[in-house]
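anyone seen this seq b4? input:
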Amino acid sequence: GKMKYKRAAIWISAVLYIAMGVIVISILLTATIPVINKLKDKNTFIETKRLLYVIDNNIRTVAKEGPGSQRDLSPFVLNKGQLYIHQNDTIVWRMETTAELLEPDININEGVLNLYLEKTPVVGKYSVQALINYNSVYELNLTSPYKQPYAGRYSVLIKHSGNYIQNRPVIEISIS
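predicted toks r here
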């Protein structure tokens, strides 16, 4: 009888050790996954800002160079969030995040970018946006077979159309 008892005790302790291991691992994962996601979002935010500066730089370059000038941005990759091109003069990128990437509810200007982080109705969730407004400088004319918002991988062509609206050059943006 004693041998059986010993074998059972070994099994029970093995099961308990495994259970403890599983619990410890799941606690660690629960703690680190949100941190990892916040870091990812921070990197996405930095990358996307860089991408928006590239768009802006190319728009300004073709505007300066004059009619017919164009730049091809391919591949153009948006890893996360959505890109909108609004009302002929605004480019906006938006993303939901749990990371407090900026001071909430304050407009922050970083070069041509206007950055804003707003709280959502869900506690700990935010919506971050980066916006470029060309309201008195250029007219943007978007052509694309795809509906807005844009997310994923595209080919973007920025071109000076040769047309002007109230002395503002019309810049064609083709997303395909």
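The mean pLDDT is 92. Strands lie at 70-86, 90-97, 108-110, 113-119, 126-133, 139-143, 150-165, 168-175. kinda curious what u guys think
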